[in-house]
Amino acid sequence: MSNKNLGRGLSAFLDLDGQMTDQENNNRSAVINIGIDNIVANPFQPRKKFEEENLKSLSESIKRKGVLQPILVVKSNNGKYQLVAGERRFRATKLAGLTEIPAIVTEIGEKDQLEIAILENIQREDLNPIEEAEAYKRLMEEFSHTQEELSEILGKSRSHIANILRLLTLPEDVKELLREKKLTFGHARTLIGSENASALAKHIVDSSMNVRETEDLLKSIKNSHYQMTNESKDKNRYTDPEVSNIAHQISSMIGLQVNIKLKNKGGIVEIGFKDFGELDRLLGKLNG
After folding, report:
1. How far is Cα 103 from Cα 88, in angstroms, rounded to an integer?
2. 3-state SS, residue 272
3. In the 3-class helix/strand/coil scheme, how is 8-69 assigned residue by residue?
4. 102, 71 in Cβ contact below 8 A?
5. What are the beta bridge partners of residue 73?
6. How many C-beta neighbours within 10 Å does residue 152 have?
7. What does the pLDDT look like over 223-259, one tens digit per residue?
């Protein structure tokens, strides 16, 4: 997200009521250069992991162009400054070997410092969907924000916020795949509400499936379930829930529609495929 959007989000938070005097606004907006050694890290920083490669890339940019957006700090009692927002820029500036960094000095309490740190992190491009969802959840639970307020502050649609929050209903192992960026938001969105989300997620990752393939897989599984449910209405047939679950598991493993029909003490396993390419892939998996 652009710096313009980030500034709008933090500005909306810092002056929600629009009641700051012109003098207060001028003081808040004054940019000064502060020695790196006089700044201490934000103890309320919710983000604990910063990707080394991204920091190096930003550091090289700062060496060439300088720090384009000032950090936000508060004055400490010991004469130093405590970082509120901009820890990534602060770390990259230190990595670049600079001795000073442009900063805006503000006066806010500890709770507000945490809230601003969370808001800033949400606007980061490299934030994974689970980190984003957990940040929304904290803002709503700890700071009583509604989805509508977050939409206004962050410049994101309410539907986006609602959809991201739904990811928190996924099993923990699926959320971990999202944190590791092995699954995308598009993948995970299709798994919400699935009975076999964990097995499906593993199959998606192992098979390097794209989002379209994932959607097709989920549709085939749902269609298989629908067919088996309809067949169970036939009084001469019985569909065991355990057999239905087995069909779903096989479908998630091979990536094709599977239907199991019981007959006497045995039955028939039907595998559907839409082209010979899918059939070849199935053969490869069976040979493997």
Report:
1. 13
2. strand
3. HHHHHHHCCCCCCCHHHHHHHHCEEEEEHHHEECCCCCCCCCCCHHHHHHHHHHHHHHCCCC
4. yes
5. 83, 105
6. 15
7. 765 454 455 444 444 456 667 778 878 887 888 888 8
Token pair 């007959």 in the structure block, residue: 263
Question: Is-contact 75 81, C-beta < 8 A?
Answer: yes
Rounded Cα gap, residues 171 and 198, in angstroms: 7
User: How does DSSP assign 94-123, residue by residue?
Assistant: HHTT-SEEEEEEE---HHHHHHHHHHHHHT
Alpha-carbon gap, residue 188 to 192, rounded angstroms: 7
Active site residue 87: yes
Residue at token pair 């209903």: 169
Active-site position among 24, 87, 115, 148: 87
Burial (Cβ within 10 Å: 0-12, 13-18, ≥19) of residue 91: middle
Give, for 176, the enclosing helix (H) or strand (E): helix 172-179
In which region does residue 33 sit, left (phi positive, over 0), alpha (psi from -120 to 50) or beta (all else)? beta
Q: What is the pLDDT of residues 83-106, one digit of tens each?
A: 888 888 898 999 999 999 999 998
